Amino acid sequence: MAFQGSRQVARVALTMALSEDREQERELKACYSREGFKTAAVDYGGDFVTSVNKITERAVVAAKREGVIREVHAEEGAVAGATREALSQVMFKAIGLNVGGKIGIARYHDHISVAVFFGVGLLHLDEVAVGLGHRAVSS
């Protein structure tokens, strides 16, 4: 890819959120790193309503731990904002139910995307939900 913009960063974040396991995450991370992307992924599960803040915190912590963002207010806020945007897109399916799945985070220069991919529901009666948020920060 010659140009990496918001669309490409969103695709990478979605791919990270859809990864099957830690091994595939590592492979994807290495592959995307060669293309100039910084990535992270983190699993999450629990009651949606009571977990929104925890999900947002986990996304920010994972992004810092994996070097996707620096520990500066604007970059932490960008990941938190993109995560909240992604969560708002799945809220109507998830409200009052349990969710389980993964958060994928990707960055290329000033583009940051956060994707959430969750199974939503009770017992084995799951629905799936995907949300995506994007922010731009100075690189």
UniProtKB/TrEMBL annotation:
Q: What keywords sit in the KW lines?
A: Activator, RNA-binding, Transcription, Transcription regulation
The organism's superkingdom is given as Bacteria
Matching entries from CDD domains are given as:
HutP
InterPro entries reported for this sequence:
Regulatory_HutP (IPR015111), Regulatory_HutP_sf (IPR036482)
Keyword Transcription regulation among record annotations? yes
Task: List, alphabetically, the Gene3D superfamilies matched.
Answer: Hut operon regulatory protein HutP (3.40.1510.10)
Q: Does the keyword Transcription regulation apply?
A: yes
Gene Ontology molecular function, alphabetical: RNA binding
Q: Sorted alphabetically, which Pfam families does this protein's record hold?
A: HutP (PF09021)
Q: What does this protein do?
A: Antiterminator that binds to cis-acting regulatory sequences on the mRNA in the presence of histidine, thereby suppressing transcription termination and activating the hut operon for histidine utilization.
Protein family according to the UniProt entry:
Belongs to the HutP family.
Subunit composition and interactions: Homohexamer.
Stated name of the protein: Hut operon positive regulatory protein
- Identify the species of origin: Desulfofundulus thermobenzoicus
